[in-house]
Design brief:
By secondary structure, the protein is mainly alpha-helical. The protein contains four helices and three strands.
Length: 138
């Protein structure tokens, strides 16, 4: 059923990973030119995989165990992506006294996606426990 709370969490995750990162820069380099994730192929592939896992997880609402596993994989992908963002931002070249790079809010969107995926997994686990308890009564 698409009206469950985990679907809402997954749709919000899709909006964060699939839509918002197109518009929010990850950081700005010294010249004031913003850096978007599309400028690096590794980020594009990882975010594409994360977005596709989210869509597949939304569609497979009848298979709660598969949905749970896909969300865990998505959490791992977002953790890898967050690690790459932090590594890249710490190694930005061109830091001088006059021109300093600025970190954007786009770097922290994978953290929000991870939190939403954890909440979705909790809701899926709650549904699974409810179904098992009803089956026990029969």
């Amino acid at each position: 059923m698409l009206q469950r709370i985990q679907t809402v969490y997954l749709i919000l995750t899709f909006v964060i990973t699939g839509v918002l990162l197109f518009f929010i820069p990850l950081w700005s380099l010294n010249g004031g030119k913003p850096f978007y994730f599309m400028q690096d192929q590794v980020y594009t592939v990882l975010l594409g995989l994360s977005t596709m896992l989210t869509i597949i997880s939304i569609i497979s609402y009848k298979k709660r165990q598969n949905q749970f596993v896909m969300n865990r994989l998505n959490i791992i992908l977002n953790l890898i992506l967050l690690g790459l963002f932090v590594y890249r931002s710490l190694n930005l070249s061109g830091e001088t006294a006059t021109a300093v790079s600025e970190k954007g809010i786009g770097m922290f969107l994978p953290i929000v996606a991870i939190v939403l995926l954890v909440l979705a997994n909790k809701a899926i686990k709650k549904d699974e426990d409810l179904v098992k308890s009803v089956d026990r009564l029969r």
